[in-house]
Amino acid sequence: MMITNNFEDYPEHRLKFFSLLHAIATHCCPALIQLSSQQLKLVMDSIIWAFRHMERNIAETGLNLLLEMLKNFQASEFRNQFYRTYFLTIEQEIFAALTDTFHKPGFKLHVLVLQHLFCLVESGSLTEPTWDTATVPYQYPNNGMFVHEYTIKLLSTSFPNMTAAEVTQFVNGLIESRNDLSTFKNHIRDFLVQSKEFSTQDNEDLYAEEAALRKEREQQRMLSIPGLISQNEIQDEMLD
Description:
Elements: H1 11-27, H2 29-33, H3 37-51, H4 56-74, H5 79-98, H6 107-123, H7 143-158, H8 164-176, H9 181-194, H10 196-199, H11 208-223, H12 231-239
């Protein structure tokens, strides 16, 4: 109750709680995999709650925890059950956060989660349907085709100002570029920047990773020139 009533109260407790879950997922993976369906749902609901959070540290902890869970279950004998239950929910929630301008600092991790999902579904390692066979009348030949159509419908709802052709082109690009992280990330970023929701925003956070790499390269270049700058000055700059 302390952390589920809203997103503001007890921030330290929230961060410690999700950090504990992350540590369990990293170091005690079998314990999570062997949870009952009700217990696992509580964990997954907690993870989704975390990356919805407006506090950057908590959201990032939740996203890193989610990535750990996805990798753990992909490598387990329960991958079909897990992804049949949570694949669509995770995709929907990640796209909701990705397309929310308040969650731009999480862009890098959103991209990694989506890349994992698209690579997984196109790999053929899921041998059971990710859709509900009882409610979906059309039986798709494979999960890749289903997720392709589902994603188009999902994003068409999220971006009503974009044409069906634009959304379809974007989803096709996701699938085609899934194995190249840089291309995959740029494809998503270009889509967001061109959207109405992001076009009038300061999108510096979407380029934060590249900016950090440029800064690091420049620092290394300056350090390589004797007498140009001291190590202490570089360290002071990194702390700013």
